[in-house]
Amino acid sequence: MHPLKETQSKVLINCAFCRGRGKDPFGIMSYLSTCYACKGKKSLSVAKPIKGCAYCQGTGVSPIGARNYCLVCRGRGIVTIPEVAKVCPRCGGSAREPSGFYCIKCKGKGVVSKKE
Ligand SMILES: [Zn+2]
Ligand SMILES: [Zn+2]
Ligand SMILES: [Zn+2]
Fold it and tell me: 34, 54, 56, 76: which has the fewest Cβ within 10 Å?
């Protein structure tokens, strides 16, 4: 992950879902249709602190029902995590339920707030 721009509270990154192209990576409508994760803007901002999305492993693509963006990071490949985080005790950091859906405790981030 290489931020395009970084401020104190946010980072601007290339949309992982379309790899910064701004076009639908799967060409569902057509190869020229707009990426629905970034709405064609090619980049997305994420509030800090950030971590690679454990659920889609940074691809921005949903591990289930591929061709959709990852519901955890919404195509960013990166998520905002709690200020003080620890590995999620429910999924052990895999971010998944045995069913394949994202972990309901950490909401697919693989980490939870240490204060919990
Ligand atoms: Zn995009
Ligand atoms: Zn994701
Ligand atoms: Zn979890």
Answer: 34
